[in-house]
């Protein structure tokens, strides 16, 4: 076998072995369903195809060993991420109360701050877009939203 090739894995899932003799001929060895071992000489084209497949498979297995198996992504953690757990009654009640408090606090803001804050956070508009709608500058919108955020923090303390 060429010295350039990485070491090939031997396991129960690889049903064949390929190699090259000293004189450059290629061979294939495998066991059939009855356990009888067969040894064949194969052409360069067949060897190249099997070699490319085996080395690609080896490359993938090495990537799995290096990256996936060493990461924190275990089957359990992936399951936890994939499955959306329904909220408990307590969590739902707390979220509803927090939303009510937030809406009450927003309603206590001055009209201009409330309108700009809602356009920015709930409608997804940029400061520039809000400024164009209201006929004011970017800086005026930014200052208004920052002031509204500060006021909300004080109200929600």
Automatic annotation (TrEMBL):
GO MF, one annotated term: DNA binding
Cellular component terms (Gene Ontology): DNA-directed RNA polymerase complex
Protein name: DNA-directed RNA polymerase specialized sigma subunit, sigma24 homolog
Domain RNA polymerase sigma factor 70 region 4 type: 100-152
Keyword set includes Transcription: yes
UniProt keyword Iron, yes or no: no
GO annotation, biological process: DNA-templated transcription initiation
InterPro entries, per database record: RNA_pol_sigma-70_dom, RNA_pol_sigma70_r4_t2, RNA_pol_sigma_r3/r4-like, WH-like_DNA-bd_sf
UniProt keyword terms in alphabetical order: DNA-directed RNA polymerase, Transcription
NCBIfam families noted in UniProt: sigma70-ECF
């Amino acid at each position: 076998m060429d010295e350039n090739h990485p070491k090939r894995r031997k396991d129960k899932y690889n049903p064949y072995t390929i190699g090259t003799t000293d004189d450059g001929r290629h061979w294939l060895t495998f066991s059939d369903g009855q356990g009888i071992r067969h040894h064949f000489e194969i052409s360069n084209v067949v060897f190249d195809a099997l070699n490319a497949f085996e080395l690609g498979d080896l490359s993938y297995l090495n990537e799995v060993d290096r990256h996936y198996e060493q990461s924190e992504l275990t089957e359990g953690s992936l399951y936890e991420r994939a499955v959306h757990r329904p909220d408990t009654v307590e969590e739902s009640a707390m979220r509803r109360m927090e939303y009510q408090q937030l809406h009450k606090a927003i309603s206590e803001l001055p009209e201009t701050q409330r309108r700009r804050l809602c356009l920015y956070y709930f409608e997804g508009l940029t400061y520039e877009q809000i400024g164009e709608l209201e006929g004011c500058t970017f800086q005026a919108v930014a200052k208004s939203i920052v002031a509204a955020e500060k006021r909300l923090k004080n109200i929600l303390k």
